[in-house]
Design goal:
Strands 3-4-5-6-2-1-7 form a 7-stranded antiparallel beta sheet. The chain is α+β, with helices and mostly antiparallel strands. A hairpin with a 2-residue loop joins strand 1 and strand 2. It is 37% helix and 18% strand.
Length: 222
C-alpha cells in the first residue's frame, strides 16, 4: 500500500514538472516580455514636466522618431515579422500635452480626433499613437509604429472614430486597406488592437514579440 502511495506522489510531481516546462514554453511562443503588475515600481524615471516641454521645444531633432526617442523613456519594443513598434511613456504630461508638444514641433501629415483616451499623429513612415493607460492611471504611452507595422498588424477598428478609412488607405498605400485588413482579422483572429502594459498586445495569439526594455531615454539611470 505504501508503494502504491509513493507511486501516486511521484506521478503528481511529474505532472507538475511537465506542466511548468511545457506551459512556459507555450507562453514564450506568442507575445511575451511586457510588464507585469509587480514591476510597475520599475517604470523609467523622467525629468519633470517643464523640462520635458522645454526640451521638446528646443530640440534639434529632424524627425518624429528622433524627437520621441530623445524626450521620452523607452518602455517596450514590439517586433513582428512585418514591422516594429517602440513604446515610450510619460507620467509627467497629459495626452493633450504630448500631442500638442509633438505636433507643434514637427507638423504631422494628419492629426486624428481624440477618441476614448487615444489620439494618432501620422508622419511620413511612422504613426504616433498616444494613449492613456487602462492599467496604470497617470501613465501615457506613446507608440512609435512604422507604417509597415500598422499596415500588417493593426486591426482597422482601432482607428474608428479617429481617422476616416480613406485617409488610412492613402497613408498606408493600400486600396481599401480597412476592408482587406478587416477580412484578414476575421479569418485569423489575431490582429493587434493597441498596446497594453500587461502584455495584452492583441486579441489572440500571433507573431508579435515583446521585450520590456528599460532605459535608453531621458532620466534613465536616475
Amino acid at each position: 500500500m505504501r508503494e502504491f502511495g509513493g507511486i501516486i506522489v511521484v506521478g503528481i510531481i511529474a505532472i507538475v514538472l511537465l506542466f511548468n516546462v511545457f506551459g512556459n514554453d507555450e507562453a514564450s511562443r506568442g507575445i511575451s516580455g511586457s510588464y507585469t503588475e509587480d514591476t510597475y515600481n520599475e517604470l523609467p524615471s523622467e525629468p519633470d514636466r517643464s523640462e520635458i516641454l522645454d526640451n521638446i521645444r528646443n530640440s534639434n531633432a529632424n524627425s518624429i522618431e528622433e524627437l520621441v526617442k530623445n524626450n521620452f523613456p523607452l518602455l517596450d519594443t514590439i517586433q513582428s515579422d512585418q514591422g516594429m513598434s517602440r513604446i515610450y511613456m510619460t507620467r509627467e504630461l497629459s495626452l493633450p500635452e504630448v500631442s500638442e508638444a509633438l505636433s507643434d514641433k514637427i507638423n504631422p501629415e494628419e492629426i486624428s480626433e481624440r477618441q476614448e483616451s487615444k489620439q494618432v499623429l501620422i508622419y511620413p513612415e511612422h504613426f504616433v499613437i498616444i494613449q492613456e493607460s487602462d492599467e496604470e492611471p497617470g501613465v501615457i504611452t506613446i507608440e512609435l509604429a512604422s507604417d509597415q507595422f500598422v499596415r500588417n498588424n493593426y486591426h482597422p477598428s482601432f482607428f474608428q472614430g479617429m481617422l476616416a478609412y480613406y485617409i488610412l488607405d492613402e497613408v498606408l498605400d493600400v486600396d481599401d486597406w480597412h476592408k482587406k485588413r478587416n477580412s484578414r482579422c476575421k479569418q485569423t483572429g489575431d490582429c493587434y488592437s493597441g498596446y497594453g502594459m500587461y502584455g495584452n498586445y492583441n486579441s489572440g495569439s500571433g507573431s508579435l514579440r515583446g521585450s520590456s526594455n528599460r532605459g535608453g531615454g531621458p532620466g534613465a539611470g536616475k
